[in-house]
Amino acid sequence: MLAVCALAALACSLSAAAAAAQAPPNQPSGPTAASFSGSVTAGQATAQAIDLSLDDAIQRGLKNNLGVILSATQTEQVRGQRLSQLQTLLPSVTFNAQEAVSQVDLAAEGLRIPGFPTIIGPFGYTDLRASLNLSLLDLKSLHDYLAARHNFAAAQLSAQDARDMVILTVGNAYLLVLADQARVASVDAQVATSKLSLDQAVARHDAGTAPRLDELRAQVDYQSLQQQSIVARNGLEKDSLALARTIGLPLDQQFNLTDKVPYAAFDQLDVDAAIRDARANRKDLAAMVQQTQAAQEERKAATADRLPTVKFAGDYGDIGVNVRHSHGTGDASGTLSVPLFKEYGLRGEAQQAQAQLDTRKAQLSDANAQVDADVRDALLDIASAQQQVQVAGSSVELAAEALSEAQQRYANGVSDNLAVSQAEQSVAQANDQYVASLYRHNVAKLNLARALGAAQDYRKYLGGK
């Protein structure tokens, strides 16, 4: 049940992160939502269990999580594309050194001239030459470079946002394991209580003071709780493996969680101020702004493709039979290129660029609304979970009191153990609700930190404000 809650809590955030990290056309793809659940395993498992705090887990995740690694590699690829695009605006200078030796057989070439040698050579020459190529007027390349620069800035921001997503993912996985441990402890306590009720029912039946039905009912309740204990332990083991996967621990490495993240009430923030902070701090939103600016430059580049371009090419070198007996030679040319009879191609390029720009603008508008929704949703979840914690805590106390009362009445022979069985079920349900509400409350605070673009300050939010 808690695992389902965990997946639901992360689904929207991971989908939004994957959308923000999605690369523009002709750019390398970034991490997907599934990437943040994986990692690159670091180190070897040890025979002794290690202590793992929430800070330790997050630091391991920031280093080994697959999502942050893929985001970093994407940034490096986009950096390389920006440098390649920059080169089109800079002079290209090359140097060539050539040493040639030749011998020609004129007869083999079909030339037979009386009195003229059929074999010429061997002869040779040395050529040392530098060449220069320069674009003097190429607005398309300029706008393409500006677009590449915005894409690089977007990739850097997406890499920072990926780190926030790792904090959210690892924090959620850590809290889920803590909730599983609390649930296992709760079910084990219920099993022990149920065993006492079973022993009491068996003793009373053997003494002839209670019917066989009481013993059978107590036996069913006891075995039902044993099954719940098995399920709870299995869930704990699987969620522990999921935590290890997100932070790069070997799956056979045993660990103990040292942080318990107790309940701490959270003071409500000013919604409007929180939304302003989120829009100023969210890296995924800033990345989308950069991607929109890149699309604008690409649209300008498509328009500039209609304009003339001016390029210069030249070379200068020294050529001769050897370096001492040589002479300087050079060549220079300028080229003016004007596109003619390319109307359909130019229109198609412009329409594609405009469509991409319109798409980016629509996505940016939606992203602004999503930031607003993320903050409001997180605050609503915190307020709701906070009330659930208070109600669930009271229910646990009332259920425990009802169980004690039912046990006393049964011990005194006032009633059968049906009331005890019902009270035990109420205690189990109340404990489950309390553990789930604590988990939802802490996850909602992590989601708020993420929604505000302040995931690095997760400690402040988990501890209340």
From the structure above, extract its key features.
elongated; Outer membrane efflux proteins (OEP); 465 residues; two-stranded parallel sheet; alpha+beta
Say which CATH homologous superfamily is assigned: Outer membrane efflux proteins (OEP)
Q: Write the CATH fold name.
A: Outer membrane efflux proteins (OEP)
Strand content: 5-15%
In N-to-C order, the SSE pattern is: HEHHEEHHEHHEEHHH
Largest sheet: spatial strand order: 2-3-5-6
Q: Radius of gyration, Cα only, in angstroms?
A: 36 Å
Walk me through the structure.
The protein has 465 residues and is of the alpha+beta class. It has one domain: Outer membrane efflux proteins (OEP), CATH 1.20.1600. Helix content is 64%, strand content 14%. The protein has ten helices and six strands, in the order H-E-H-H-E-E-H-H-E-H-H-E-E-H-H-H. Strands 2-3-5-6 form a four-stranded antiparallel sheet, with no helix packed on it. A two-stranded parallel sheet has the order 1-4.
Question: Topology, please?
Answer:
Blueprint: H1 2-21, E1 50-52, H2 54-64, H3 66-87, E2 92-105, E3 119-137, H4 139-207, H5 212-247, E4 255-257, H6 271-281, H7 283-304, E5 309-320, E6 326-337, H8 343-411, H9 418-451, H10 458-462
Parallel strand pairs: 1-4
Antiparallel strand pairs: 2-3, 3-5, 5-6
Nutshell version of this structure?
64% of the residues lie in helices and 14% in strands. It has 465 residues and is α+β, with helices and mostly antiparallel strands.
